[in-house]
Design a protein that fits this description.
By secondary structure, this protein is an alpha+beta fold. It has two domains: 288 residues, 2-methylcitrate dehydratase PrpD (Orthogonal Bundle), CATH 1.10.4100; 126 residues, 2-Layer Sandwich (60s Ribosomal Protein L30, Chain: A), CATH 3.30.1330. Helices cover 48% and strands 7% of the residues. The chain has 21 helices and eight strands. A four-stranded mixed β-sheet has the order 6-5-7-8. The protein has a two-stranded antiparallel sheet with strand order 1-2. Strand 1 and strand 2 form a beta hairpin. The protein is globular, with a radius of gyration of 22 Å. The relative contact order is 0.15. Belongs to the PrpD family. InterPro entries: MmgE/PrpD_sf, MmgE/PrpD_sf_1, MmgE/PrpD_sf_2, MmgE_PrpD, MmgE_PrpD_C, MmgE_PrpD_N. Pfam families: MmgE_PrpD_C (PF19305), MmgE_PrpD_N (PF03972). GO terms for molecular function: lyase activity.
Length: 476
């Protein structure tokens, strides 16, 4: 068998031998707050219309019963695989979840649902998953996903039409679940081989399709499935990252401007922790649009910026952000399309002075004043951004021409949350703000306390007791 690299087996050995004591304290603590943010996103997303549709459709396909709860659905349980799929879809339901700054994927939506399903599933065979074990699995997956993503081009994969997180997410989920199950290096290699052959995801889902909300769930579910199959010694593709023909890295860089970079998979393992590059979103929209919001806010702080006085707006973006969010919006626009479109988000910030859940309520999506302004906004690909270092790839420049001839300009290199990480206190504030009208104050504090002390918890599946309630639809 021909090979182009030799990274699969060393990665599997690293996963097998990684111990809690090997992980710096700051990484452990950050992981807790990453999980808290994911749970907040699940609360918001659990009863949105497309989430409710998914629950009813998926549970109709499944046999009655199961031991894995659905977050925010009182007394609703199913098997581990559909639970991972649906809980992931809740976290991804409203574009509020974490995002890796260099290799774009939403780790909470991939890893956390798979691990929570596994924690519940393990109890059926008499095993208890501690909070420390859950954190160790989470950290493992958070390291693998971005490294594999960087090896196949990072954000550039978006420009070729792949849903990057779903592609990178399969090995991330498989790694996390393999670690939680205590698999040996050969089993982990099988889990990767089973997971990576299922990796996929088309980015055109962002325009109108509810399936975009579920695609990270495919990775969560399939990674969990792969680890459970590997636990039973089911054989996967050997050295799946290394093979020249049909290997993961090679296939997902076909047609790319640069070849695969396998060295990224092992680069600085246990020295540079990719979890620390995961950013928490302050706004409910695609991460590549956050800089657009910050540009508008900067102009609003300095000038009177009212829609009726605007002649034209130009938004200049790097390649991945342009292809992902610079497309021409057409009326009527869906909630999904609005969250992925620079022009809509810019118009909403100018008119409403805020981006929140109600921004995407159906009554607000197709207002005449909104579309009068959207038609004045043009997005352009600014190629020089593509040559900038990774940490500046989301650089956005906005130029506003007013009817009186005045020209205003703002340029943002490091958007809030995406390139300026939210602090632990800001993550708690976001959690409380998002969930205030959805769960009780005591419920909020119970969840915050449970997650803050997760490394001391004996049974991580006890978390589900705090979510055994029906959440209202936040945009009803």
């Amino acid at each position: 068998m021909s090979k182009t690299s030799d990274v699969t087996k060393p990665l599997c050995s690293w996963i097998e031998t990684l111990k809690w004591e090997d992980i710096p304290e700051e990484v452990r603590e950050r992981c807790k707050f990453l999980i808290l943010d994911g749970l907040g996103c699940a609360i918001v997303g659990s009863h949105l219309p497309w989430s409710a549709q998914a629950v009813e459709a998926v549970l109709r396909m499944e046999s009655p019963g199961g031991d894995c709860p659905l977050l925010g659905w009182k007394e609703r349980k199913t098997g581990p695989l559909p639970a991972a799929l649906l809980n992931s879809a809740f976290i991804q339901a409203f574009e509020l979840d974490d995002w890796h700054g260099l290799a774009p994927l939403h780790s909470n939506a991939i890893i956390l649902p798979a691990l929570l399903s596994l924690a519940s599933h393990q109890k059926t065979v008499g095993k208890t998953v501690s909070g420390q074990d859950l954190l160790l699995g989470m950290i493992t997956g958070c390291e693998v996903g971005p490294r594999v993503g960087l090896a196949v081009g990072g954000g550039n994969i978006l420009s070729r039409g792949w849903h990057s997180g779903t592609v990178f997410g399969h090995p991330a989920s498989a790694a996390a679940c393999s670690k939680l199950l205590g698999l040996d290096k050969d089993q982990i290699e099988d889990a990767f081989g089973i997971a990576c052959t299922q990796a996929c995801g088309l980015m055109s889902a962002q325009f109108e399709s509810s399936v975009k909300r579920m695609q990270h769930g495919f990775a969560a579910k399939n990674g969990l499935f792969s680890a459970l199959m590997a636990e039973s010694r089911y054989k996967g593709i050997s050295t799946v990252f290394d093979r020249a023909y049909g290997g993961y890295l090679n296939v997902f860089t076909l047609g790319a401007s640069e070849p695969a970079k396998p060295d990224e998979v092992l680069k600085d393992l246990s020295e540079t922790w990719q979890l620390m590059n995961m950013n928490i979103k302050p706004y409910a929209c695609m991460a590549g649009i956050h800089a657009t919001i910050d540009c508008v806010k900067e102009l609003q702080a300095k000038h009177t910026l009212e829609a009726q006085y605007i002649k034209k707006i130009t938004i200049e973006l790097g390649g991945p952000a342009f292809h992902h969010g610079g497309w021409q919006a057409e009326r009527p626009l869906t909630e999904m399309g609005a969250q992925m479109n620079n022009a809509y988000i810019a118009a909403a910030q100018i008119i409403d002075h805020d981006i929140n859940m109600k921004t995407f309520a159906s009554a607000n999506l197709n207002r005449d004043e909104m579309w009068e302004l959207i038609l004045k906004i043009q997005c352009q690909h600014r190629e020089e951004v593509d040559q900038m270092p990774h940490h500046n790839k989301l650089c956005t420049r906005m130029t506003v021409q007013l009817e009186n001839g005045q020209v205003l300009q703002s340029e943002v290199f490091h958007p809030k949350g995406v390139k300026k990480p939210l602090t632990s206190e800001e993550i708690i504030e976001k959690f409380c703000h998002l969930t205030t009208d959805l769960i009780s104050p005591q419920g909020q504090q119970d969840i915050i306390q449970f997650v803050s002390n997760l490394d001391q918890v004996e049974d991580s599946s006890e978390l589900f007791k705090l979510f055994n309630l029906d959440i209202p639809n936040p945009i009803a």
